[in-house]
Amino acid sequence: MMTTNQDKTIYEIGCSQEFVPVVSFFHEVLDYNKDTGVFTWKERHRDLFENKHQWCSWNSRCAGKVAGSQLKKKNKTYLIFSVKGKRFYAHRVAWLMTHGKWPELEIDHINGDSTDNSISNLREVNRKQNCRNMKLYKTNKSGYAGVSWHERENKWRARVMFNGKEFFCGLYDDVKEAALVVNQKRKELGFHENHGLTLKGEA
């Protein structure tokens, strides 16, 4: 039977050193609500612990509680689980538990909210596609991604970065006109329609 070291925090999944987490294990220890994206710890079996005290203690503290801890990475916040010191992102675990296999590519949060792990908000994409669906940075001063103030010309500058190349889209008196030009260029380049939007609650 599997044995474990005592859990260090309620966010860690106990497993033996030789154990490699697979879909059946996550289903055994976690409930995943596909509609809300929330993970909840299930009550664990006795054979996951070294002794009865650890077993009873963990279940009394954690069973039925919301699972995961937050990790801030650059300008985003992700939900994570730790398995024997190895970090697993909740959005990738959600994909595994839904589709029965780990995603081969990156997982994009469609609405830009990296804490929303509902399955309808997740899609498997390559790196370039993921970069074409990013929220508006908080440091943006124009209110529109790709639009910035050009001091020397006293106009709004419109530009799009794509595959390491800058596409200059012109200078404009009206910030909204500059934003429309940028959006049109992004459509031509295959950006997601949500790219550059402000997250709900951040406006």
TrEMBL record:
UniProt cross-references to InterPro entries, sorted A to Z = DNA-bd_dom_sf, His-Me_finger_sf, HNH_nuc
Q: Name one Pfam family in it.
A: HNH_3
A single GO molecular function term of this UniProt record? DNA binding
Q: What does the record list as coiled-coil region(s)?
A: none
**Protein name, as recorded:** HNH nuclease domain-containing protein
Residue limits of the HNH nuclease domain? 89-130
